Amino acid sequence: MYKKILIANRGEIALRVIRACHELGLKSVAVYSTADEYSLHVKFADEAVCIGPPPSTESYLNIPRIIAAGEITNADAVHPGYGFLAENAEFSKICEENGFAFIGPNAHIINSMGDKAQAKKTMAAAGVPVIPGNEGILKDAAEAKAMANEMGYPVMLKASAGGGGRGMRLVREESEVEHAFTTASNEALTAFNNGDMYIEKFVENPRHIEIQILADAYGNAVSLGERECSIQRRHQKLVEESPSPAVDEDLRKRMGEAAVAGAKAVNYVGVGTVEFLLDKNKDFYFMEMNTRIQVEHPITEMVTGADLIKWQIRTHAGDKFPDYLYNLKLRGHSIECRINAENPDMNFAPSPMPITSFHMPGGKGVRVDSHAYAGYQIPSHYDSLIGKLIVHSPDRASAINRMERALEETIIEGPKTTIPFHQAIMGDDTFRGGEFDTSFLETFEYNKKDEAE
């Protein structure tokens, strides 16, 4: 087991990892930019090192400074959290070359899963269902057009190195292909320094279901159930829940087995998430694999009782996981709302203001993961996440009611937040009925309700 872990991240996920370290009896090192000097992850780590000014390129993405912080504090492992360098193969490689264990996949696995075209090919070879599309990278827009005409419209053009909705274009007819290909490729080139594109048949109105997997270094891998992630805005998740109201025991078993097969195909170690699209016929297709801990991991922890961060650390340290992880049954229902410093009445414009009042809910079945507090200045340089509100209850209906109660108790004054938006979702008949898909927010009438009031 490691002795001291440096957390190469910030905010709530850094604090979450610090808590796991302390419960495992390990020392923790926080790194921070000058904008995060007063963040709670800096306060509660055993040691903290400033690594630069606010821009992430000069701090949280600055690999030499992070490595230097690890060296001066004598850390022996690095946990990347999510975002920033979490899925950066070069960072994983440099950590290992400098004597730090990287608590995540090695560079080869990150590259093989980060390249979405290659990942799709790997998963198909492992017997995982994949969306019909081309093999490899498209040469140009003309090849994209030929493939689209062969598959039939609509199709989705995707950047091989894309993420977060960037480098993606939905194409419904032949005349749109050339412009969509060019703009998506240029967007990906700017964002990821890689303009390679591939094409897939577009699955109409799917649900976004992801499977949490855990694997040790001895060839063992297990599925820890699914998460429903269909409530999205511009491919960014807002509300997640586990289990999914669309998944029964048989489907859960089949999706879990497919995810485990995919993980074993690349000799995966640690925590990972295999994401699927689920169509109206209950057929599922591989979308991508995230080789890191997910923002929404707490809902899986709530329904399984497993501490995913601890197991992530332990599996990378060489621990073999026990037999009981194979037999975990999902208990009850959990929902997570991401509370962001954004104004839903102004097209979710960021609201990086000082927090003047901060009161988080409590009571049975309520969990809050947050690095914020009264007096905290939300930096404008990073994402707008203030915290995650998670509830757990015996069934979905009571979990929704508990979330409504918890949102009502939450007081955050200063910045505008997404709390009213989440309250509207919890009260929506379609959401409560569980009959929704990734197009839910396209017809959600939050603004109309607000204007009526």
Q: How would you describe this protein?
A:
By secondary structure, the protein is of the alpha+beta class. The chain contains 16 helices and 20 strands. It has helices spanning 11-23, 40-44, 63-72, 89-97, 107-114, 116-125, 141-151, 177-192, 249-265, 297-304, 308-316, 396-409, 419-426, 429-433, 440-443, 446-452; strands at 4-7, 27-33, 47-52, 77-79, 101-102, 155-163, 166-171, 197-201, 207-215, 221-233, 236-242, 270-278, 284-290, 333-340, 342-343, 349-350, 357-359, 366-370, 385-393, 411-413. The strands form five sheets. Strands 13-12-9-10-11-14-19-18 form an eight-stranded antiparallel beta sheet, with helices on both faces. The protein has a five-stranded parallel beta sheet with strand order 3-2-1-4-5. It has a three-stranded antiparallel beta sheet with strand order 7-6-8. Helix 4 runs antiparallel to helix 5, helix 7 (141-151) packs across helix 8 (177-192) and helix 12 packs antiparallel against helix 13 (419-426). It is globular, with a radius of gyration of 21 Å.
